[in-house]
Amino acid sequence: MIKKNFFYNSLFSVSQFIFPLITFPYSSRILGPHGIGSVNFIDSCTQYFLLFSALGIPMYGIREVAKRKDKPEELQKLAREIFSIHFYSTVVFALFYLIAAVSVRQLREHLDLVCVGIGIMFFAPFTCEWFFQGLEKFKYISSRAFAFKILSVIFLFAFLRKDSPSIVYYLIGASSGILTSIFNQYKLSKLISLKLIVADLRKHLKPLVVILSSSLAVSVYLLLDNIILGLLKGEEAVGIYSTSLRIVRIPLAIVAAMSVAIVPQISRAFHNGNEQAIRSLMQKSFTFVSLLIVPITFGMFISSPFLVQAFAGHKFVASEVPLKILAPIILLIGLNNIFGIQLLTPMGKEKLLLKAVSYGMVFSITLNFILIPYFSFIGAAITSMCTEVVVTIVCYYFVRKYIDVSFNFKVFFQCLFAASMFFVIEFLLKQIELNYTLTQLLVIAISAIFYLSFVWFFVKDNNVESIKRQLLAKRGFSPLFFTKPVKEI
Fold first, then answer.
1. 430 falls within a domain
2. DSSP assignments along 248-310, one per residue
């Protein structure tokens, strides 16, 4: 079940980020750093108000729906309550957003983009993605998301031209979310009867406020840097920095896929007191991060100049340095998802997660206001990376203190060693006088081959052996080909 959910949710999450690999090189060359920066500045503000209006519902809804998936009457009642809370809060915060847009000069200058953001807010409650994720309907989620992303790509190439204003780009970006809301409501109507209510809403507010507080604290160091950059250094600095962030966040789709796929099962395991299942799920998740995220982190650091040139073009060459600084965030967020989202939240320890991200929030605000005035987008990148280090350390401390679960760090360090060899491969290939693009492609290809070979022959772990057995079994090899499962640590 986990493998299927992870596959479908990977398709969904990757669709959120893989399509920019197709669209962003086109749009960045048309709009330039200033145009991209304007949209990202307003979108960062929009995301803040979306976060407030959601009240922590995306994570809370998954957990609560997973607990009631076999109780139709309770599930329908829960869905109506959560939907109503989300809708009412959206009306309130959309009004606040409009007041802020009229009052703040930097927002007022982009009032057309703000109106698009408010429209995005009003569609958000009708998406109810938490309902389908809690029921583990990842096949439906991924196929629908993939189809709508294809439509948005068609819209982009059809309607974005050299003389197009930034609002066209923002509207096209919002189109898949709007279509998702409409289609999800149609799908929901076949499963439950959804309507607005006013009774029995208060009981959800306390856990929602705790989760919201954690989300807000996290958002400070995910979104506030763009806003501070926009206010202090202008839209072009936002365009440079947000481009490096966009590239870094592409592989984070894989991390998000694993988290969303595994949270419902961990929630049920905690609810049933099944400690063995919890340990098994956590080790699988940790092995996954070690095997996949470690090499991606090293690869992105080494190939950052090539990635920026290929992804955004020569106008964004300044994004190379912040991208190198931000590369470790991929691994840090992968670990944070395990310690925080996959462990602390399902077991009801949201307050510990809130405490951890609150430390990160204070650290981020302080360092942003110190570094951004002097170092602009480079200061923002340094702040983001250092903040993730702080949150990772604190989350791991809480996990070790309150939860009886251990991780096989041997696999992690083996993967770390193998990925560090990418630097040697890059150095050796640069000694050969080849075309720049060919050299970079060879670095990526040879590094990947070396890493996969190292993992196959030298990394010994039950989860790794299981993957190897399945891969070879599909190709007709006998299970006797494999070594015995290694002892779990």
1. no
2. HHHHHHHHHHHHHHHHHHHHHHHHHT-HHHHHHHHHHHHHHIIIIIHHHHHHHHHTHHHHHHH
Q: With b meaning 16 or more CB within 10 Å and e meaning fewer, what string describes 264-275?
A: bbbbbbbeeeee
DSSP H helices, 19-134, are 20-54, 57-68, 72-103, 105-108, 111-123, 129-134
Any domain includes 384: yes
Each residue's pLDDT tens digit, 355-377: 888 888 888 888 988 999 989 88
Question: Who contacts 283 (Cβ-Cβ below 8 Å, separation ≥6)?
Answer: 407, 408, 462, 463, 488
CB 220 within 8 A of CB 365: yes
- Give the pLDDT mean for 108-128: 91
Number of structural domains the chain divides into: 1
Q: What are 127-185's pLDDT values in tens digits?
A: 888 888 888 787 787 788 888 888 888 888 888 888 788 899 899 888 888 898 999 89
Q: What letter does residue 186 receive in the DSSP assignment?
A: H
Q: Is there a domain that residue 379 lies in?
A: yes
* Rounded CA separation 372/379 (Å): 5
For 458, the enclosing helix (H) or strand (E) is helix 436-458
